[in-house]
Records
---
Amino acid sequence: MSGGPRPGPRAAAAMALVPVKRRRTAAAAGPVLPEAAEPGRFPGVVLCLVERGLGARRRALLAGRARAAGFCLHGPGSAAVTHAVAEQCSADEALAWLARRRGSTPGDRTETSTGLALLDLSWLLESLDAGRPLDIEPRHRLPVSGVTPSKEPDPAVLPAYGCQRRTPLAHHNAMLTEALETLARDAAFSGDETRSLAFTRAASALKALPRRLGSLRDLAALPGVGKHCRRVIQEVLEDGSSAEVEAVRRSERYRTMQLFTGIFGVGTRTAASWYQEGLRTLADLRATGPRLSRQQQAGLQYWEDLATPVTLAEAEAIRELVQAEAQRILPDATVTLVGGFRRGKPMGHDVDLLLSHPEEGREQALLGPLVASLEQQGLLLYQQRQPNTFGQEPSSSSMDQFERCFAIARLALPGAGDPGAWRATRVDLVVAPRSQFAFALLGWTGSRHFERELRRFAGRQRGLALSSHGLYDPQREMFLPATTEEEIFQLLGLDYVAPTERNA
Ligand code: CTP
Ligand code: MN
Ligand code: MN
């Protein structure tokens, strides 16, 4: 096990929900693997994979990966074994298994008497990632039977809401989250938002885990992982991939929907109706010409550039350009890079800029002249402005009502050799008055799921309505003021989560 506690009643119940077919076939097979002849790249390290708990199929898979990485593997009969790796079993159970395979009794060899390390699979997986055998930490050791090792942070207390957790950009469960997020997208493509959200929630919880999920048992500690997610996770843990996910990824519908929804101005519904009509490629869309909106036409026209990730350097360049222009119009105007880049992403699909001014109301005179000026300089390939509607119409969705401009900018690429080189880049400009700035900053930093969780937490746990405009208390019929993100977290009774930890 990878650091979770020994299974409690909750974990046991969770395990019972898991189909056990795979496990049984594994237990039935039991050939002793031939002992490796090669010495391996790491002197002093001889692995033995304990089949108990791992299963034969997964053991063979792991053995292949370990050998490919240069590890020396011996069978359980070998006295040369230094590192015995097991999963979902205690040190005692692993020793008993080894002893049975050697035809001796468990008492013959103990971890301490011989220097044999009894390790959890997490040690091997982390070592394979690192490309070398890692130093053994206490958390890597198999627990002695019946003893709960103390570990921290305890995954059993992973909080229920994404906004209560710290979710770094780089996490330990990418294989699992990518599988679940594929299913989330696929469900969204079918219009099933509830199902999509279930997959997204499970993926989000895995992103907050401080280590690789080693076994299904650890899942008991994660909030919001349902049966279907569990099945997918088991498959990925055991086989390295999920048949269901692979089938989705290969399917014509999923691939087409990915392609179409990736176009600027194309949402799920439009993409689905195009798919329904038999359209499959960008060439198909170009041939349908007149049915495309102006936005979609621009999206198609610059598709290749827009499908190329924006780098942080490019985002900074655009921010500086926009700020220089904004301050020419209004000297104290502020331009803040938000969205994924503020969360520490090195790449993004667009550049999100939040505009404001220290003096309430002055920001209203900014976007019009700014866009006109950028356009005049030939820096905008497309732009679509929307007025501020806050307080005018009841907000329909979680979408905010700030004055904004969705644009495609023409960004010069000075370092590209060709002095005239440029690329098209999606830019979102949003204007917030000072009094709403902190809320807009919080709302536009994301991730989308983090925002969704913040709003859900505010509503369910605090009876407050959070948006990018403010925090509304329906009982007192007033907005609760805040000038910083920290204050908003405080008002919600939440520990502050830094932008780089909001990658939920
Ligand atoms: N956002 C919003 N209203 C919109 C669009 C976006 O409030 N109409 C917010 C979202 O909550 C999100 C943030 O703005 O958190 C940035 O959105 P987006 O650019 O779509 O996503 P990023 O997280 O920046 O990811 P990427 O790197 O792909 O751009
Ligand atoms: Mn963005
Ligand atoms: Mn955006």
---
Amino acid sequence: MGVFDRTDHLKDAGHEQVVFCQDRASGLKAIIAVYSTALGPALGGTRFYPYADEDAAVDDVLKLSKAMAYKAACAGLDLGGGKAVILGDPERDKTEAKLRAFGRFVQALGGRYYTACDVGTYVQDMDVVAKESQFVTGRSPEHGGAGDSAVLTAYGVFQAMRAAAQHAWGTPTLDGRTVAVEGVGKVGRQLVEHLVEDGAQVVASDVDERAVDRVRSAFPMVRAASVAELPASACDVYAPCALGGSVTDQLAQQLQARIVCGAANNQLAHPGLEKVLADRGILYAPDYVANAGGLVQVADEIEGFRFERAKAKAAEIYDTTLAIFRTAEAEGVPPAVAADRVAERRMADVGRLRTLLVPGRS
Ligand code: NAI
């Protein structure tokens, strides 16, 4: 089998470029995948992860880079989609030399790919990568970066939830509604803050009890639920803010909520669940539309980070989400399918304009 047919993703999805990076001395093994640059440079984080094998790493980077292209396109950003993975255990294997070697490979792509934080990498790591590359976002504020992207991720999820409320109930407020938040880490706990301010009743769960305790010490009115009981609890909105794949067949059947809207990437455990939710009358705000605030935050760094400008852009997630619900209704498809169509149309329609030669413009 040839390299280009090696995985279903490479064969079917048609990534532009996949770069295998190796620096033996530092032990770096990384893969950078550029899915599309139709709308602009590909932006996506670097995941540092102990993959079971290289195939798993290839598969992950291909999937993640494609998702970034769709996320950027729907968010109205002039960015393509890319992602990188560094193979290894971040706790054990992360070194300055490895991060800087990775930075040199990012730089070598000449701006086709901008990196950022992801699972296993933090703002401090991006500061190190940035010593070798100018194409780095997600740096610390001290180095001109946007800092922790959870701030606008949570804000954007809240905007998507308001849009879902508007669509479902004719009013955007969550006042008086019960919202079940699964996972109160960096994003979940800031989402709780927005919800409490808006007058919602919040019930929260986390595998880490300390995370729930932290939220309850800031907001004593938040109720705690166990991870097992949350999915079937009485609520109006279910917000998956933990790991991907939490909306399983079982959860889709158990849910009492009218809306599913949260921060986690790849919330649906498998394709087809968007239809199960729709058939049960549950309005699903597509994950990559709802959680685009973090991407908006780091993307702003490319122009020189300004929080208010990034926040205003993240606020547009309200209108984007509403428009996707309307497209879904008009085209008779679940919102997740509508979101994919909106992204694909923008990549095709706006991306095509870049083939018109304008001297002095790329
Ligand atoms: P985090 O790691 O700070 O928080 C996740 C929380 O979920 C942790 O407190 C963890 O203990 C908890 N958790 C894990 N499994 C659980 C389960 N089965 N049930 C309940 N709680 C569980 O991560 P963060 O940054 O808050 O991200 C949350 C989700 O949002 C992730 O899926 C992430 O990929 C996604 N996301 C985050 C963005 C960001 O800017 N931080 C941007 C876009 C998406």
